[in-house]
Design brief:
Length: 409
């Protein structure tokens, strides 16, 4: 499956599931979150059906680009036989544009990024009709999937609400609370338009080994996902503050003494950026101490810490030669501008994934480098302005850096 097909699949944020396996939770909280057997069976049927709908949706759209290319070729041949030069040139241009668009970097929030509005031609009318049909087929498939899942969720919610009442009457309060939590999550998804995201989180947790759609400690999931049409990933809910000069030591990113090392760009809408350049500076005094690692950092404010779950995927063209060599990355969480916790990782491999995970049941949070088995857990303080920082640095003059960033669920 190519990148575009993967982007359209209902892969959605998974690290809330990972949190259940990585962040320690008090025994009382774990007990309260254990669903009763009655709910487990209801959840199994519900999430199994949602996975089936996801598979049907994927199957229904995966051949649409190839079908469109065949349709364009047929139209091209038709114009050629008619001697219609304008038609031949228009279809030839569209075939080339579409083929290039399929392999280009896409806006993950668009349903058909390879067919933007500006690509729809005014003439010939036959070509415009094919383009509109192409977009319409994707919209029809997405609408059908959402309608089916909403109908299922409505029935599931009704069953959960009835079960909650029955359990409460029976004095099974902890189990009733677990049922209410599940119902509240779904109801919130319906109200906020994030039903697909919430359902897929639970469905993938079910697939990973939980019979009730709730991932248990020790379960594993994949998180190399790209947001899809109809979903809003957690990172898109953060407020991007901007970029700044950065030193890894003491996580300094506002000190006026910092040298201007490396270049950086970041596109807020797509969650993609790039750090690049050559190291020009050696050790120097910054503030109260000597610093060796300089570069650039991106900063986001997190107004709602429940959204603080995401992956930072770094792809490097130049690799670190050792612990004292760049490029390297730092992921940090700050409260009111003060560092709570940070992890530093040398970019030894072409792809490095760093993660931040918020426990949905408490104020605990974790910074992770899964491949290096680094996990730093900590508590988020109440009534504080929480920020996330990602910095990329180099250390030795002459070192090269060309590292791209992709934010993922």
């Amino acid at each position: 499956m190519n990148l575009l097909s993967t982007m359209r699949t209902i892969w959605l944020p998974l690290l809330l599931l990972l949190a259940a396996g990585l962040l320690p939770v008090p025994a009382r909280a774990q007990q309260a979150a254990t669903p009763p057997p009655e709910m487990a069976e209801m959840a199994r049927a519900f999430y199994q059906r949602t996975r089936e709908l996801s598979a049907q949706y994927e199957e229904s759209i995966k051949t649409l680009p190839q079908q469109y290319q065949r349709d364009i070729q047929v139209l091209h041949d038709h114009f050629r036989k008619q001697g219609n030069l304008d038609g031949v040139l228009a279809t030839d241009k569209e075939m080339k544009r579409f083929a290039a668009a399929l392999t280009a970097e896409h806006d993950p929030f668009e349903l058909t990024p390879e067919m933007p509005a500006e690509a729809i031609v005014a003439a010939p009318a036959e070509l415009r009709q094919l383009q509109e049909q192409y977009v319409g087929r994707f919209k029809a498939a997405a609408t059908h999937r959402l309608r089916e899942i909403r109908d299922l969720a409505t029935k599931y919610l009704g069953g959960l609400q009835k079960l909650q009442v029955d359990l409460t009457r029976a004095g099974r309060i902890a189990e009733a609370v677990a049922v209410k939590q599940e119902a509240d999550r779904l109801q919130k998804g319906v109200e906020t338009g994030n039903l697909l995201q919430i359902v897929e989180q639970r469905a993938l947790g079910n697939q990973a080994g939980s019979s009730d759609g709730v991932t248990r400690p020790g379960s594993t999931t994949s998180s190399d996902a790209t947001p899809v049409y109809g979903s809003v990933p957690n990172w898109a809910r953060w407020n991007y503050v901007g970029s700044n000069r950065f030193a890894r030591e003491r996580t300094q990113y506002t000190n006026p003494d910092l040298p201007d090392e490396l270049n950086v760009t970041f596109t807020e809408r797509t969650g993609r950026g790039r750090f690049w350049g050559r190291c020009n500076y050696g050790p120097r005094q910054v503030g109260i101490g000597i610093c060796n690692w300089f570069g650039k950092a991106l900063v986001w404010k997190v107004p709602d810490t429940s959204t603080m779950t995401a992956s930072f995927v770094l792809t490097s063209q130049h690799l670190s030669a050792g612990q004292d060599h760049g490029p390297a990355a730092q992921l940090a969480v700050l409260a009111n501008g003060t560092v709570l916790r940070a992890i530093n990782v040398n970019l030894f491999e072409r792809e490095t994934t760093l993660r931040v995970v918020k426990d949905p049941r408490s104020d605990r949070c974790a910074l992770l480098w899964p491949r290096g088995r680094i996990t730093e857990t900590f508590e988020l303080p109440a009534n504080s302005e929480i920020s996330l920082l990602l910095g990329v640095t180099v250390r030795n003059p002459g070192e090269l850096c060309d590292t791209s960033l992709a934010l993922q669920p």
